[in-house]
Amino acid sequence: MVDTSAANKSRSTRKAVIPAAGLGTRFLPATKAVPKELLPVVDKPALEYIVEESAAAGLDDVLLVTGRGKSAMVDHFDRRPDLEQQLEAKGDTKRLEAIRRSSEIAAINTSRQGEPKGLGHAVLCGASHVGNEPFAVMLGDDLIDARDPILPTMLDVQAEHGGIVLALLEVPREHIKRYGIVAVETTGRTGEGHLGDIVRVTSMVEKPEPDDAPSNLAIIGRYVLPPEIFDAIRETKPGAGGEIQLTDAMAALLAEGTPVHGVVFKGRRYDTGAKIDYLKAVVQLGVDHEELGSEFRDWLTEYVRTSLA
Hints:
five-stranded mixed beta barrel; Spore Coat Polysaccharide Biosynthesis Protein SpsA, Chain A; two-stranded antiparallel sheet; transferase; 13 strands; single chain; globular; 12 helices; alpha/beta
């Protein structure tokens, strides 16, 4: 097991960057006027889950990297006195608390990405806000179940070793080309419960062909990065897809001697990046929902029995 007591005391990471400037083309026409990050997953926008995860890990200074037509994301975390007054007048305290809570989760800041040049470029847009300190990057397509947190352990590993810490997941061979893939060596350390090995990363490559991949360990959407990443991104040329890839910038730091560790995740994760995965996420979170889960599970069971038999 990992002893994180000393690391908890020495953490210097306080900020999270959430890249959210993408056009959401895979969800058109739903995302023509509504940012994909605000599409509801049961009863909350996907983005709210991410901000809640950040705050729960102690990162309550959140930077949203936005683009044209994305102002609604910032509005979601703002106060709505008119709506609050209506709910208060109706005595609807439950919904009143819900909309107030979204404005109190964290301090929300924004930076504008003028054009989509890749994840590396999106992270670079946070340089002036982050300054000279480690920070987390959290991708909105990956929802990590609040019951299976990984970010606190990643922050503790970074506090102990410095450098880069990545969330890793074993993926099927046919999915390898979707991800940055790493080669690793053991450290002899293991996380608790839903966390697997804590490993040392020896190389990484963005979206390789399966036959060329060093493993089936994929980088998923949680990173803890040192401020040196910004200079590395500035020196990174467009890579896969003609975009400035964060993986390429991290690989450059690794080659220069920056330590890179990974925490293997074995918990509940919900991918909302494509339509079918989004639907799966809604069902998975829906059946576990505190208020709706029991009724939804009963309906789903009956629907499968009678309609899909």
